[in-house]
Amino acid sequence: MLAAADTYVVVLALTDMMAGVGLPVDQLQRAAPIISGFLLGYIAVLPLIGRLADLVSRQRVLMACLVVFILGSAITALAVDLPVLVTGRVVQGVGGGGLVPATLALVADRWPADRRGLPLGVVGGVQELGSVLGPLLGAAILAVADWRAIFWFNATAGVVLLLAIWALSRPQTPPSDGFGPPQGPPRRPETITRRRAVARGLGALATALLLLALAAPTALTTDVTWGVPFVPFVGDARLLTPIGLTAALLALAAIALSARDWWPILTRADLPGAALLGGSLGCVVLTFAAADPEREVVGPAGYVLLPVGALLALGYLWRHRTSTSPLVPRGTMRGRTGPALLVSLATGAALVAVVVDVPLLARLTTRADQTAAALVLVRFLLAVPVGAVIGGWWTRRTGDGIVAGAGLLLAAAGLWEMSRWGLGSLDDPARSTITLAAVGFGLGLALAPVNNAALADAPDDAHGTASSLVVVARMVGMVVGLALLTAVGLHEYYRAVDALPLDAPASEQVAAAVVQVHTVFTGAAIAALVGAVVAVGLLGRRRVA
Questions:
Q1: Exposed, middle or buried by CB within 10 Å (0-12, 13-18, 19+), for 276?
Q2: Measured distance CA(110)–CA(106) in Å, rounded
Q3: Are 75 and 177 in contact (CB under 8 A)?
Q4: Which of 31, 76, 460, 538 has its CB 3.0 to 4.6 Å from that of 339, i.e. a possible disulfide?
Q5: Residue 399 phi, psi dihedral angles, 5° rounding
Q6: How many whole angstroms separate alpha carbon 27 and alpha carbon 41?
Q7: Cβ–Cβ under 8 Å, residues 450 and 343
Q8: What digits encode the pLDDT tens for the residues 333-352?
Q9: CB neighbourhood size of 192 (10 A)
Q10: 453-499 pLDDT, tens digit each
């Protein structure tokens, strides 16, 4: 829920964040990396984190991801220039995204295959609840404080969760080296403990100095003596200072001292394969997330990024075939795991269409402000977690394919109905609420069966990897689906505008804009229908051992 809430919380605070790093409101395109940076960190590193969750303790992966998320939140809160702000968002994305596959893998560890549906539904429901609470939380904080308080709240929540997981994990016996099986010749325990203590101390000190350099408190920077470490070497960058350089050197020392602990496990996780697959996913994210739908389907660098991404994907396939221990273990994609990824992709495309275009339709047809338009979307968002929990419960009784297929068929029917909404459709609260709730409930129904099918047919030692791939497919569906559906919708809008006379009344211009929304909803309905067909045809069967 924390990760999902952070994905949506930026929507309301984006203009304030731009002002905080010196960007004027009319340069919104320059702020695109604030959003795409989070998505890049979230998606590109997920396969590696999912694999690590298979090789080491799930709790350790959760705790490590929370530490990364807390650090990213603090960097974001302290940023005063765009590069630091984007870096903080990327770090946040890495930490937040890694929480999901580790959590799903924990469910697979603790429940047998025929009883995972409901707990997976609960996880999916809580995650979707974050998409509801994120904007509401952001609005509440912005009402009493500035945008930086949002990320300090995230950091505080992360610390609380970190302490809770640590307390619940204490009774377990950790692996011999803290990460995995012993590597190399035996080492004296007291030497290992001392080295780790020194590495952690240096890491903590480096983090403290980094945050201090970013905060640059006036009481220190204006002091004749204490202000010297804060004097920039070049320009006014807060990190290009003696204190920033010291933090970097201490961090490098901590990394060098701890390398004997984490390097062997990264080697086992296939770091080159992770770089190739993560790079390919990163190219896709940057291509479509950075695009301006009014002018282009792909971003400015997309015609370079897409070929590079394709080459990296081919490189990963070669690596997968030749490596003795590939990033995605052999056998992970057997059975229903591959079709589950296709259903997840289609679900993401349908979901994002509603999240983006329902508020747009509300503003076009009811003259609602941004807040009122967002409240219309709540009717949809509240139904998604309800559908997720019920879908998990239902999965055990009728099978994954039937539940996911029924949910996506319901969503497709609702989206088809929404593709015919006109100027007065949202003025009928009963009908619009039923339709929006039906679409949200249907998409929610598909969440648990997709995860359940992938986990059931993946090997037991690849649950983290399979979970991460399902999440990646859904997020890629959202990013690419939004760009493609919006581009097609805008094409129809411009064609409708060109057909209008020069003196066309405002109502006809609004009707032309509604054509764009209709096109997006139609495309989303098709995506949901394709997902339903795949689910019924390929997810209803269990792999025979």
A1: buried
A2: 6
A3: no
A4: 538
A5: 100, 155
A6: 23
A7: yes
A8: 888 989 999 999 999 999 98
A9: 15
A10: 999 888 888 999 999 999 999 999 988 888 888 878 777 777 777 77
Q: How big is the chain by its Cα radius of gyration, in Å?
A: 24
DSSP alpha helix (H) spans, 324-446 = 337-366, 370-398, 400-418, 429-445
Written as six digits, the tokens of 116 are: 């995972």
Quote the CA–CA distance of 514 and 302 in Å, as a whole number. Answer: 28
Tokens of 167: 């307390």
CA–CA separation, 127 vs 129, rounded Å?
5
The CA distance from 467 to 461, in Å, is: 12
Tokens of 10: 């930026």
Share of the chain above pLDDT 90, in %: 43
Report the C-alpha dihedral over residues 519, 521, 524, 528, rounded to 10 degrees: -130
Rounded to 10°, the helix 2-20/117-144 angle is 30
Contact by Cβ (8 Å): 350, 484 = no
* Tokens, residue 216: 């640059």
* pLDDT at residue 189, as a whole number: 58
Amino acid found at 273: G
Is the CB of residue 349 less than 8 Å from the CB of residue 524? yes
Cα separation of 351 and 269, whole Å?
32
